[in-house]
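Q&A FORM
Asked by: J.P.
Topic: structure of DUF1659 domain-containing protein

PROVIDED:
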Amino acid sequence: MAVTFNLNGSRLTIEYDGGVDEQGRKIVLRGNYNIKASAADQDVMDAAITIANLQKYPVSQILRQNTGILTQEA
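REPLIED BY: S.T.
REPLY: Here is the structure written out as C-alpha cells.
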C-alpha cells in the first residue's frame, strides 16, 4: 500500500539567543510565523534573515516545519 503526504501548511520559527538567566540557564526566544506551504526554501530563508535583522538578539536557529496529511491508498 502506498502512502502519500499532502502538504497543507508550513511554519517558520526563528530562535534567538537571549543570553542567560540568573541561574546560568540559556534563554531562547522564539518568533513563529505561518507561511505558505508552497514557499520555496530560499524564499523562506530570505524572509527569516530579513525578520532577524530587525530584532535585538542574535539568531541561534532558523526552522521550517511542514505539516500535512498522510493517506494510505489501497
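FOLLOW-UP: Strands lie at 2-20, 26-35, 59-73.
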